[in-house]
Amino acid sequence: MVSLQNCHNFNDFRSLAKQRLPGPIFHYIDGAADDELTYRRNTEAYDDVDLIPNVLAGVQDVDMSVEVMGQQLDMPLYCAPTALQRLFHHEGERAVARAAAKYGTMFGVSSLATVTVEEISRITDTPKMFQFYFHKDRGLNDALLERARAANFGILALTVDTITGGNRERDLRTGFTSPPRLTPSSLLSFLTHPGWAWNFLTKEKFDMPHLSSHVEAGTNMAVSVGDYFSTMLDQSMNWKDAEKLCSQWNGHFALKGVMSVEDAKRAVDIGCTGIMVSNHGGRQLDGSRAPFDQLAEICDAVGDKVDVICEGGIQRGTHVLKALSMGAKACSGGRLYLYALSAAGQAGVEKALRNLKNEIERGMKLMGVTKLDQLNRENLRYKNDKSNCA
Fold first, then answer.
1. What is the dihedral of CA 78, 81, 86, 90, to 10 degrees?
2. Among this protein's residues, is 90 annotated catalytic?
3. How high is the pLDDT of residue 218?
4. Which of 39, 293, 301, 388 is the most buried (most CB within 10 A)?
């Protein structure tokens, strides 16, 4: 049996989460779209590039701080916004916010969060991003924006890759919904995880408080996330809508889910100060490219105009160093802390962030760099002498 003490890497946390969560909940985190090719490629892409270290560089003191869209971070990795966190652990977003604050990094809060932006703002002064889903209900959209503004969130990030739900076949097989719904096939899994069931049933009632005063789906009416995206989000959303939202926010604004150079350029044109190169963790369009595979050409096109974030597949500190060497300003991820949250709440997230921070610092020293801006493509080579990344 895996214990928190013995969680030394991403896969250790994944194993512990699998022990502690009912099957439908675990597979919601763990799964992706269709054949999950893109999900796997997101991490495999980093293996195609090698790091070239330098030595005798005097690396006793390392500075891994970075400014991302006006937010000062102590490390170049932050917790990406993810939905439904109190399904995974009863502390939910509260645990992640406190852990992020302890390590001086940013926490992204989802429109589909289970703790309010107001409470997150009260319990922590960590840099905060609000992730915005563009709903058909324009009154809900206005309410989301104003709540994030009033709660002093520093960044608004519009998710642009969920125009319809991805084909998440694991969720179809397990019957996963929010809130959870017992089915004949899932009943045994819930019964054999009494710790999770006790917390879910005895702690505060499950809710998605940013949405529940406007829509029933997801809180009072069980629905799959794919169905929520397909029915509740506005499939007519276009560049004019994004530009208008950017203007309404009138602050640091990002698009989350940009994968093409052309879209990256348009993001600059509408006033974005950042973009997340992301394919939603492989949960939307299977067969799409990995963020790391697209990073170089996007950074070459717009990296001097906006902060480019590499999001997806990050499991090691060396993955972060490779992305930063390729041109990203910082990295982010969801599963890298969700397994840890599921495994042990705030203590788990803190350990996951500590592991990754230590890996980044150790990697920088072994690379012979003391500041992040010393990383560049001269540090990288493709395997098999395919080409020089530079």
1. 10
2. no
3. 56
4. 39
